Amino acid sequence: GFFHSSLSPTVELGATWPPAGISPFNPLQIPLLNTLILLTSGITVTWAHHGLMENNYTQALQGLFFTVLLGVYFTALQAYEYFESPFTIADSVYGSTFFMATGFHGLHVIIGTTFLLVCLMRHWMNHFSSIHHFGFEAAAWYWHFVDVVWLFLYISIYWWGS
């Protein structure tokens, strides 16, 4: 839908992309900030992992805390963007694709933030060690995957799609 419509906009869409009447978000504002937030969170979760591997309790705790905080911040900015959106999910293929893709990704950010919050609580209770932290590693890999997916969404929907 999205790529077909953007590469070959039909007469029904006004033969333009985005469709006539759609005012897309500026990719250099909140979307770029969200990109920087997620990239930074990838650094903080890696910093937390290094802390775990080196038995540095404080570094791991701080890294997890900041990663969770950045995940919540990303979600808050995404919600703000939705509330301020000049278009709705019912406004053509652009609106439906935008809200479905970013909403599905946002759901995964919330899930990942929850995983990392559980890891933060487990680390707080000393459930992890340098050799026993699979739950954390699984959450960290999931978080990195969510980061990479966002980069594709940012490029295709916000940058190229505007």
UniProtKB/TrEMBL annotation:
Name any Gene Ontology BP term: mitochondrial electron transport, cytochrome c to oxygen
The answer, when asked if Transmembrane helix is one of the entry's keywords, is yes
Q: Which GO terms describe its molecular function?
A: cytochrome-c oxidase activity
Q: Which UniProt keywords apply?
A: Membrane, Mitochondrion, Translocase, Transmembrane, Transmembrane helix
Q: What is its main location?
A: membrane
How does the entry describe its membrane topology? Multi-pass membrane protein
Q: Which GO terms describe its cellular component?
A: membrane; mitochondrion
List the lineage, top down.
Eukaryota, Metazoa, Ecdysozoa, Arthropoda, Hexapoda
This protein is called: Cytochrome c oxidase subunit 3
Which family is this protein grouped under? Belongs to the cytochrome c oxidase subunit 3 family.
Subcellular location(s) of the protein? Membrane
Which residue ranges run through the membrane? Answer: 28-48, 60-80, 92-120, 141-161
Q: Give the highest taxon in the source lineage.
A: Eukaryota
Kindly give the InterPro entries that the UniProt entry links to this protein.
Cyt_c/ubiquinol_Oxase_su3 (IPR024791), Cyt_c_oxase_su3_dom (IPR033945), Cyt_c_oxidase-like_su3 (IPR000298), Cyt_c_oxidase_su3-like_sf (IPR035973), Cyt_c_oxidase_su3_a-hlx (IPR013833)
The protein's role, per its UniProt record: Component of the cytochrome c oxidase, the last enzyme in the mitochondrial electron transport chain which drives oxidative phosphorylation. The respiratory chain contains 3 multisubunit complexes succinate dehydrogenase (complex II, CII), ubiquinol-cytochrome c oxidoreductase (cytochrome b-c1 complex, complex III, CIII) and cytochrome c oxidase (complex IV, CIV), that cooperate to transfer electrons derived from NADH and succinate to molecular oxygen, creating an electrochemical gradient over the inner membrane that drives transmembrane transport and the ATP synthase.
Q: Per the database record, which ranges form the Heme-copper oxidase subunit III family profile domain?
A: 1-162
Say which species the protein is native to.
Cicindela maroccana (Tiger beetle)
Q: Which gene encodes it?
A: coiii
